[in-house]
Design goal:
The structure is a homodimer.
Chain A (H helix, E strand, L loop, with lengths): L2 E7 L28 H9 L8 E6 L3 H7 L8 E4 L5 H15 L4 E6 L3 E2 L2 H16 L4 E6 L10 E10 L2 E8 L4 H10 L2 E11 H11 L1 H13 L5 H8 L8 H6 L5 E3 L6 E2 L4 H7 L8 E3 L2 E4 L5 E3 L4 E5 L4 E5 L3 E6 L6 H10 L7
Parallel strand pairs in A: 1-2, 1-4, 2-3, 6-10, 12-14, 13-15, 14-16
Antiparallel strand pairs in A: 4-9, 5-11, 6-9, 7-8, 7-9, 8-10, 16-17
Chain lengths: 356, 356
């Protein structure tokens, strides 16, 4: 049975402004020490397991060109364009139907396009195991992440120590983002993993679950699938997709389905959720500054500073992020990265469209 | 008797980097809400008291063009160029000899080119009184500033309440920059003023004091004066001036001379010593931010932010100075403005001449 991959690349992430823009979201940015963008790294990472022709990218139609440019080896017909974002269930269903048109059945990985994994080898080892497990019967496998601190911004996966298959454990349930107190309890039990949105299953398995738990969506996606390869393909997609229910795969299927396994991941996963992550990932100097470009620091520590065309001199700064781009410069307290979206709100109010 | 003015504009101030550069020191910058530069404001301020043809500018030869551009009404021959900076005594002596070539005697104000005075009218009133006092006998008059906090970066003038002439008091002595404790004591007595380097005297008075207390310098300056208007003028200046003792007028003459008066100034003097001063002078918004250009602030207070060609977004910043220029951006904690010179040291070490 063939192994295929669906990479979700529709995100519009605003958290990396001013580098990320409406026309250039996070997954298309270089954010690590590597010269490749997040989505290029994602493809690279799974290539030993999947043929290039079996990698599908679901993205917003606005980013079709970007995907083609950054991933020229991916067949054009594998770049699936959502007319608008409808959360992860329609996105994954669209991918599953496309793959089912090509193969009678196949293993299908579902991956975000904008997270980082430090130990690619260990990751592939466990993904391979997930693929084997997915092939057996109708198992859903989710690649959970061993938490190393009580993060309150992620959902968690509760597994059961008793039911084990190799490195995989049976999933008890999915839980929403917890409070700090609850997150601490989760960590203490050792039976909770972060839900990183990485799944492995057979196409046949997930499609039958769409049919069972999201029957209207299944019908809609079926119409879209019927038109694939016909002159109507585009038109049907444009008409039907926006009417599909906007719902996550977790909420729509995973929380209802049985026979779900999780494989605890210990391969240095990072969702690269904000500029702070860049500070974690990139190499810091002796003062714990992560510097890029022509930067001079005097009595400055714990800062992230990326110069572009101008020299940046930082004097007496602590805990500050400076990101310079061609037309805009962000200077942000590390503790205020969550407020970057307020800058974008301001820009919208001021009709400064060119910076969005 | 004619009233003349000597404006000292040789400073190379590094404290306003990146706006000030080797080729564009502070006195030639716009630093206030006014559109005029510091030296333009200085000339404007005294114009009601002095004819344009009686205003002399002493500057470094590198800035001759800048002075001409910014002050086209000043006669070219009134722009006196020091081959190199030798502190204030040679500078003032050079000016005094030049004026003595033109007038048998005259009142001479000596003024820095880079300080700010808010109440120009009150200032002129007191300068006028100083001129009258200088005309009488051989009085030296120094325009002291009433201190409103115990500044440790200035020298002080101790005056005597007993000996009064109109608004002027007899000076007891000049004192060096004090410790904070001593500065507090000075303030408490009410008998100390800041020494702002503004003087008024007759040319004949100051020249006779040069002859008495700095006889070698007097001779050297005499040689330079003898060559004024001859083909040798430039050559003699270039040869003799660099050999003159490098000494301040305070140390070389004022601390030794008798009959010195001071007029306590209450006209909103500001030496505009650093970016902090710009924060004091310019209008602040409700969050006490002084903003210039396209700036967006979110949860940001007590900052000074000057955008240039790029939009600047400040998020969660407190007490920070951001100055953008064409090729360099300074981001500096307000408490670290004194460390800006370390940036320049770094730039020199790195051979980044273009930013100096």
């Amino acid at each position: 049975m063939k192994t295929t991959a669906l990479i979700m690349a529709g995100g519009k992430g605003e958290r990396f402004w001013p580098k990320s823009r409406k026309s250039l979201p996070k997954q298309f940015l270089v954010l690590t020490n590597d010269k490749r963008t997040m989505i290029q790294l994602t493809v690279e990472r799974i290539l030993p397991l999947v043929d290039m022709e079996d990698i599908y990218i679901v993205t917003n139609k606005d980013y079709k060109e970007l995907v083609s440019e950054q991933l020229p080896e991916i067949p054009k017909e594998n770049i699936l364009c959502e007319p608008e974002g409808r959360n992860t269930a329609p996105c994954i269903g669209l991918g599953a139907f496309h793959i089912s048109k090509k193969y009678e059945d196949a293993v299908m990985m579902v991956l975000p396009s904008d997270s980082l994994i430090k130990d690619g080898e260990r990751y592939r080892e466990l993904v391979k195991e997930a693929c084997e497990l997915a092939k057996k019967g109708n198992n859903l496998v989710t690649m959970g992440i061993k938490p190393n601190y009580p993060e309150t911004g992620y959902g968690y996966i509760k597994f059961s120590r008793e039911e084990k298959e190799g490195n995989a454990f049976k999933v008890d349930r999915f839980v929403e983002k917890p409070s700090l107190e609850v997150a601490r309890e989760y960590l203490a039990t050792g039976e909770y993993l972060w839900n990183a949105g990485m799944f492995v299953w057979k196409v046949s398995t997930i499609l039958s679950l769409f049919k069972e738990f999201l029957p209207d969506m299944y019908k809609g996606l079926g119409k879209i699938a019927d038109a694939i390869g016909t002159p109507e393909q585009e038109k049907v997609l444009e008409k039907v997709f926006p009417q599909l229910e906007s719902i996550s795969i977790d909420y729509g299927i995973m929380e209802k389905a049985g026979s779900i396994y999780t494989i605890p991941g210990d391969y240095g996963w990072d969702d690269v959720g904000s500029w702070l992550a860049v500070g974690r990932i990139k190499k810091a100097d002796n003062n714990n500054n992560v510097l890029n470009g022509r930067v001079i620091t005097v009595n400055t520590g714990n800062c992230i500073i990326e110069a572009k065309d101008k020299l940046i001199a930082a004097v007496g700064l602590e805990n500050i992020v400076v990101i310079d781009t061609e037309d805009a410069t962000l200077i942000c307290n590390k503790d205020s990265c969550g407020d970057i979206k307020k800058v974008l709100e301001n820009l919208r109010q001021l009709n400064y469209e060119e910076y969005l």
